[in-house]
Design brief:
mainly beta; six-stranded parallel β-sheet; four-stranded parallel β-sheet; 2% helix
């Protein structure tokens, strides 16, 4: 039911570039004071809660993550101090498994990849830079895409996890 369960004191924890698919809760923290936590660039899918924070969790930064949750993105039990849902550049993507999450449906009228309005996934905490879905309400104002791919080669002998170099000639 849980992906990660941590009980720590006086430590730094970084969860970076992970895919977390769990039945009930994605990440569970039970942390005492003087702990710094960074959860960045993770894909978190769960049926109930994406990130559950309990006890005296503090100094937690949650940025550039993609939530795909049925119920609650973040749940807090007990006291949490210094919870940051965005930095000066990025927030999080708040999706729901049925496609009705905030980021799934928000407006992005200036086509910058961020929802036009801030979002509070949990009472008292706001993500001022929530990431928008691919459905943006307005295309680029000049109507011309930045890149057009006119032909592609197909490679059938590429192995899983193999790195492939691609060259794009811009004319």
């Amino acid at each position: 039911y849980l992906f990660i369960c941590l009980a720590t004191i006086n430590t730094n924890i970084t969860i970076l570039n992970n895919t977390i698919n769990c039945y009930y809760t994605g990440i569970f923290f039970r942390i005492s004071t003087n702990t710094n936590v960074l959860i960045e660039n993770c894909s978190i899918k769960a049926t109930n809660v994406g990130i559950y924070l309990s006890e005296l969790s503090n100094n937690i930064t949650i940025i550039k993550n993609k939530f795909n949750i049925s119920k609650e993105y973040i749940k807090i039990w007990g006291k949490v101090k210094n919870l940051f849902l965005n930095n000066s550049k990025y927030g999080n993507y708040y999706g729901k498994t049925d496609g009705t999450g905030y980021s799934d449906t928000c407006n992005d009228t200036n086509y910058d990849g961020f929802c036009d309005q801030s979002y509070s996934p949990i009472s008292g905490y706001t993500d001022h830079l929530p990431l928008a879905g691919h459905h943006s309400t307005n295309p680029p104002t000049n109507g011309v895409p930045d890149l057009i791919i006119t032909s592609m080669s197909t490679y059938s002998d590429i192995a899983p996890n193999q790195t492939v170099n691609v060259t794009i000639d811009v004319k």
